[in-house]
Amino acid sequence: MADNPDEIKWHEPHTCMHCDHSLAETPIEGYKRRQVVDIPLPRLIFTEHRVAIKCCPNCNMKQQAAFPGNVKAPIQYGDSWNAWCAYLNSYQHLPLERISQLFEDLTGHRPSEATLLSHLEKLSIQLEPIERLIRQNLLDSKLVHADETGMRIEGKLHMQILLRESLKERKKALEAERPLNPEAISNIETRYDEILSRGAKEWRPPLKSAESGKRGRKAKSKAANLAERFILYKADILRFLQNALVPFDNSQAERDIRMVKVKEKVSGSFRTQKGAIQFARIRGFISTMRKQGRNLLDSIILVGRGQFFLTDLSSYNWRVIWRAYF
Q1: Start-end of H helices in 108-245
Q2: pLDDT digits (tens, 9 = 90+) for 140-151
Q3: Which residues contact 28 (CB under 8 A, 6 or more apart)?
Q4: How far apart, in Å, do the first and last CA atoms of the chain sit?
Q5: Domain boundaries in the chain?
Q6: Which of 235, 297, 265 lies closest to 88, judged by CA?
Q7: What is the pLDDT of residues 2-37, one digit of tens each?
């Protein structure tokens, strides 16, 4: 319940239910309360800017004040409108036509798709320097998430048991506020190598027969290519055992990158490369703001006004792949 509600409605007893005596002049001794939380119906708010014209009493020349720098046309959309447009398109994945329809249903006014596109383009341009700053902080981060694609070997997932057991061991160590025992790490690494060694007979292709007239081995299978990556990137795959900052899974990156496919399914393919870049930049900014716990619409409004700043960069955890959308 809110400590300071926007509106308070009193409901007083008018007569005593016991003797029918009037309570109109009886003071209130106390009260009980209940609250109703609601969203007001949206409406358009028109703010008119008037520049005054004065006549100089000294030289009789008329002087006119200047309009604010962000008021450039006789009639235009404001910062909140632009922020909602970017949020609905780049975060909720609504196509432009549906955004126009939504605005019309809520306010009775329908902007054109061309108008919405122009706002998205303008915001994308304004986000360029912010994107460069966040990218640099990402490169300086101790931890960076990258996406990967899960693969199956002969229709089944392997090595999963070992990795899950390894995760349990790390959780126990974290709960005890201690690093994982070096001996336990060594045992896991040994079992890791043994699994790959046992599987080598399955994924290594046999030599081609002399009857075929060709020498050498057959082309590597998908299983063999995957096994090579397990061998080559062993240290990276098991890094979570020694570094508490490194997560066991890759869910964070997958959640971020998956939004590109969601956008395609909802809105269809992008018409131009420029549109794809704009979406990636705006979506990346919104995703980063959400990770930092900042208000999304307020942040977009501040970008539009040229008043958005990133302060105290050391306090942020830069773990979003900005350029992954490209």
Answers
A1: 113-139, 160-175, 182-203, 222-232, 234-237
A2: 888 777 664 443
A3: 12
A4: 44
A5: 82-148+250-326, 160-207+216-249
A6: 297
A7: 999 999 999 999 999 999 999 989 999 999 999 999
